[in-house]
Amino acid sequence: MLFSQIPGHPETKKLLLKSVQNQHVAHAQLFIGSDGSANLALALAYATYLNCEERGEEDACGHCASCTKMNRLVHPDMNFVMPVTTTKSVTKDALSQSFLTDWRVFLLENPYQILNDWMQYIGAENKQGNISKDESRQLVRFASLKAFEAEFKIILIWLPELMHPAAANALLKLLEEPPAKTIFLLVSNAADKLLATILSRTQKVTVRAFSDEEVIGYLQAELQVPEADAFQIANLAEGSLQAARKLSQELTSDFFDFFVKWMRNCYAYKFGEVVEMSDNFQKLGRENQKAFLHYALNNLRRVLLYGVDARLVPFIPPAEIDFVTKFSKLIRPANAALLTEELGNAHYHIERNANPKIVFVDSSIQIAKYLKS
Ligand SMILES: [Zn+2]
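^ thats the input. predicted complex w/ zinc ion below
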């Protein structure tokens, strides 16, 4: 993984590059970010940069012996520990090492995937993954080995918050007396669940969620998603690139048009048309119904913000500006709160298998009232 392959995050990349260039490489670093963020990708790009034989100012070279191995995640000095569980093919002694081949393919496919994706990938079904107490022996072994060919030996632990206490204690001992030329990269989604003693021994690298602009750029460049769809997906993905990737495969309908038509019919009290629309709503299927209501909520929030101060909404696709401007005149904090509650209730009922047509029509009646109030 190279820094250049990760969308955006110029400030974090700069910080990481500088630490290597100034030889201030902390022996334990904690990459904190939420699900679908760039924390794992950045840790991998950082590891690649650390051991690159021809480092550039802004990235690893990508073609030296070290980079070539890092690109395929087969560098002998790059060690991985991640949550696993027993599966159909690994029926006992579920340790990271047993899943290394799967892990490489999984990561190379896309480093923004989340724990649930990994569990599905290894066939864990409904089992929870963790980093078992037996993993502590592996950690100690990694730490005691000399680097084979690189300057640094790297131990990357994905989701250290899922460590069994015995494994966490083994890690703590290693952090207290760090082996020479060994760098621990902890990639976490929930740093508050780590031992305070581990936390205090790591240097934090806070990785923010992806911005809408970064998500849109990625969807267009990597997945050839049309601009209007990319805007819609970014609105729903809330900074998770993995959520955006999934949405780009799932969303089939144009939520914006549907939302505009819905609000217009509600405002005009055209309930005959609302009932017609409820058929289309039903046809979306439950997951898309939920996604649409979620989209409607986000859109409402955007319109409200726009009405307060247009500068609060940095991105509006050209095709949507006219609607947002007009609709913002109808939305005030008081009715926005009621509308938000109504959409939230609709989402709740759909999630609990209520009849989608009835939910849609009921909500429309309330929304019509609130839009006029
Ligand atoms: Zn290189």
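The chain has two domains: 3-208, 252-372.
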